[in-house]
Amino acid sequence: MMEDTQEDQSSSSSSVVATTPMTEMLKVLTKGERNLKLSNFQLTRLPEEFEKLQAFSLKRLDLSQNNFDALPREVSLLPSLQEFSLCNNAITPFIIAPEIGMLTSLVSLKLTGNGISSLPEELSDLRMLKIIDISDNKMERLPAGILKLSRLAKLSVNQNNL
Description:
Blueprint: E1 16-17, H1 22-30, E2 35-37, E3 60-62, E4 83-85, E5 108-110, E6 131-133, E7 154-156
Parallel strand pairs: 1-2, 2-3, 3-4, 4-5, 5-6, 6-7
């Protein structure tokens, strides 16, 4: 059962934590919040209301520890997203769709522990990326386009088949 909204104290800025229905989270986001944490809810898809988030200029989104088997299509509708975490879903095969290339403001992408075996070439469209963490997956090769990411400062690929 879901309870009241809480603030995530693990970071210096507050985040909306998914402990209320999505409509309640939208009310909080209307008040200026730009961080949303929907982790550890065993989600297999995003609620219908999620598409309304593109109006809020969401900056950070955490969908970790759920049951997604692919990058949710709705995430590609968040052009102002800067930090995205989709870790430990571990439903294989896990698919990162080409739509990830639409997240052109993305600075940090964390996809650890998902059983990902490949990344789309569209990853090279994410010119703002500074951090990519694809540790603990099933990667056998990296897309050639990753060399085009001139701002990339940290690439974590531990525990893969590279």
